[in-house]
Amino acid sequence: MSKKVIVLGEFRDGSLRNVTFEAIAAGKTVAEGGEVIGVLFGESVSSHAAELIHYGADRVLTAENPLLKNYTSDGYVQALLPIIERENPDVIIFGHTSMGKDLSPKLSARMGTGLISDAVDVEVAGGNIVFTRPIYSGKAFERIISEDETIFATIRPNNIAPLDKDETRTGAVESIEADIRDIRTVIKDIVKKTSEGVDLSEAKIIVAGGRGVKSEEGFKPLQELADVLGGAVGASRGACDADYCDYSLQIGQTGKVVTPDLYIACGISGAIQHLAGMSNSKIIVAINKDPEADIFKIADYGIVGDLFEIVPLLTEEFKKLSVST
């Protein structure tokens, strides 16, 4: 049975985040031939509508309002609720991002329906939409079937592959009015603590450091390797607690959960709290002086040695490969 699905687009530095296209792919799966509607909020967002259609959306609704330029839960709730009431979708999908994790429970509570968060897979089986999500810090997975008339769900970035971009696809784009009132949160300024570059939560390659990097300076070789690979730098809680880097880089149970194609753990012992945030990475490479470190138990490849010798060597070799190609 075909269904109607709404996908909320998300921006970062003026561009659509990749998780938006992943959410559209999830929406196409659950729609079963039905309609996937992309929704964009902000200023001058209409120019991005075609991109949603190229990645699989059938129709796009845009709401342009200065009060929607920066995300606030007050503004986005007021903008999205009327759309949900008008379109009456079967499923609303968000990325499992800071915005999605904040907005989705507010909307689902307003509508008196449940929320399936942090889904890593979605399928239709026996006429039911089945969401798969990790539990117990990634040690197990549960499959959930919602009986609510309207299903709210967030999907973890980097788990559901986006559809191939098809620039020949066309679809209707409608501009709608967003009547925004009673904004209790006023954003004066946005201070970024992370370095410019690849978004850690969506990075395909992550080079992460632990206490073994020994200092803030110790992260420089990791950053160089990440730059060569086109990846991002992450850290364990131990490294953050030691003031080697900012907590915005923290990966783990109390930090970000990531699932890159390649995770290079440098000087990370493998504490269970850290493993909870990265153990589902597709390929894990561990570099550690201690051959008994727990990180080697989950690593696909292990290198026993001094990271300050090994990481620069890897960087040079990858540079040679990039030049030759």
TrEMBL record:
FAD binds at residues 211, 236-237, 250-254, 267-274, 288. CDD domains: ETF_alpha. SUPFAM superfamilies: Adenine nucleotide alpha hydrolases-like, DHS-like NAD/FAD-binding domain. Binds 1 FAD per dimer. One of its GO terms (molecular function) is electron transfer activity. Its cofactor is FAD. PROSITE patterns: ETF_ALPHA. The keyword GTP-binding does not apply. Keywords: Electron transport, FAD, Flavoprotein, Transport. GO terms for biological process: fatty acid beta-oxidation using acyl-CoA dehydrogenase. Pfam families: ETF, ETF_alpha. InterPro entries: DHS-like_NAD/FAD-binding_dom, ETF_a/b_N, ETF_a/FixB, ETF_alpha_N, ETF_asu_C, ETF_asu_C_CS, Rossmann-like_a/b/a_fold. It comes from the Bacteria. Gene3D superfamilies: HUPs (3.40.50.620), TPP-binding domain (3.40.50.1220). Residues 5-194 form the Electron transfer flavoprotein alpha/beta-subunit N-terminal domain. Belongs to the ETF alpha-subunit/FixB family. This is Electron transfer flavoprotein (Alpha subunit). The lineage of its organism: Bacteria, Bacillati, Bacillota, Bacilli, Bacillales. The gene is etfA.
